[in-house]
Design goal:
Helices cover about 65% and strands about 5% of the residues. The chain is mainly α and about 260 residues long.
Length: about 260
């Protein structure tokens, strides 16, 4: 379900990163999607995983009920994303996920199953912190866009058509920055719910531990080839596959069988 949410999230929020780039015909859809995918991946790597940590602490149901609560919340969010996408309605996958998780937790264990407010230093966590961020982000975005637009119009009031090319090229940079910020926010929400399930199951490990476990599993399953038989003229020679050394007379001529 987390993968399904990430997919439907791409139907809505991820498409915003390249909307203006394609609508103004600066780029074709395929190159724009490739660029957005790459920069979405760079988002959490460059800016950290704070959003995933916050999402993982929104609900606090009993340990035995974490998996069904998270599954129900994801199912509601995926259903909402599909319905709004089918009808062409722009909607926020973040609101759908947060609402789905909160509703499932309240239905399972009451109001106490939701982490309403908490703080990590100065950073607000829990439902209140998420709702405040979701509420003020459109206002801040509109104010910033208005300021930037007015400033550019004033700076380029005497510009001619020769500035059209550089302005169109700058859209690649702005779309890339938007994709990075989107990767550091919306993309991490699916990671956050997976982390919540892993923590509940006691299976959360560091990235290094996961890689080490995968390497050990591969090494155990890898075929073990027998050491090559080597014989020497006159003196037997034994090959050690582990050390790669040969024991025997150095003057003997070796013949590989």
């Amino acid at each position: 379900m987390a993968l399904a949410f990430a997919l439907t999230n791409g139907f809505h929020d991820a498409a915003n990163a390249i909307a203006t780039l394609v609508a103004t015909r600066v780029a074709r859809p395929l190159p724009a999607v490739v660029m957005a995918s790459a920069f979405n991946l760079l988002g959490p790597l460059l800016l950290g995983a704070a959003v995933a940590d916050t999402v993982a602490t929104i609900v606090l149901p009993p340990i035995d009920d974490v998996v069904p609560v998270v599954g129900a919340g994801l199912s509601g969010a995926v259903a909402w994303n599909l319905v709004t996408w089918r009808r062409g309605l722009p909607s926020s996958s973040s609101h759908a996920l947060v609402g789905g998780l909160a509703g499932a937790a309240i239905a399972d264990a009451g109001l106490d199953a939701v982490n309403w407010v908490s703080f990590d230093g100065w950073r607000p966590l829990g439902m209140v912190g998420v709702l405040v961020a979701l509420a003020i982000s459109p206002v801040l975005g509109a104010a910033a866009a208005l300021l930037v637009l007015r400033s550019l119009r004033f700076a380029l009031r005497r510009a001619t058509r020769r500035f059209e090319g550089p302005v169109r090229d700058v859209q690649w940079a702005t779309a890339g920055l938007l994709a990075v910020s989107q990767g550091a926010n919306d993309v991490q929400k699916a990671v956050g719910v997976v982390a919540a399930v892993l923590l509940a199951e006691g299976e959360a490990r560091s990235a290094l531990g996961v890689l080490r476990g995968a390497w050990e599993a591969w090494a155990a399953a890898a075929p073990r080839w027998p050491a090559p038989r080597i014989r020497a003229a006159g003196t037997p020679v034994v090959a050690s596959r582990a050390s790669g050394e040969f024991r025997g007379s150095a003057t003997n001529r070796l013949h590989r069988s």
